[in-house]
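Exam review. A common question shows you a sequence with its structure tokens and asks you to describe the fold in words. Practice with the pair below. Do the first one on your own.
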Amino acid sequence: MSASLTDELEEFHQFLGSRLSQGESSLTPEEILVEWRAEHPLPEDLADSLFQVRQALADMQAGDRGRPAAQVTAELRQRLGIAARS
């Protein structure tokens, strides 16, 4: 096992221990992993995010103003079957 992988596993172990000590034992392993990845993104995910931001900025410079966030949120809620907030 490479040193960087060993280091990452040790960091994840500490992260998990911290979450458990904070009383977050009701989270599933998948939920813990999602939190870990949010705080420790993979390099390829960062590169993809950067590409997407640059593309969006280029679109804006070309005149694309996008859509209102409220409209996008409403469409996502409808597609996912989530009730609108009141």
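Now try the second one, then compare your answer with the model answer below.
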Amino acid sequence: MLILTRKIGEAIAINDNITIKVLEIRGGQVKLGIEAPSYVAVHREEIYHKLLEENIRAAAEAPEDLTAVAEALGSKKEKP
């Protein structure tokens, strides 16, 4: 783990396209601004873990054989 000390207005660069800037420090809270490309997902850690758990749960509940679903969707196509 890399540990850095930053003051208000200072930033951390990750690669060429992600910047994390310290915007405010008040009491025990630090407000950060994160600039990243739209294809980079940025979440609070607790939200990220909930998303992972939900994705795992959804994958476990998905039917293994999607033939019936594919056939049902195929029958909905308009025929010329």
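Model answer, second protein: The chain has a mean pLDDT of 89. DSSP finds two helices and three strands in the chain. Full marks require stating both points clearly.
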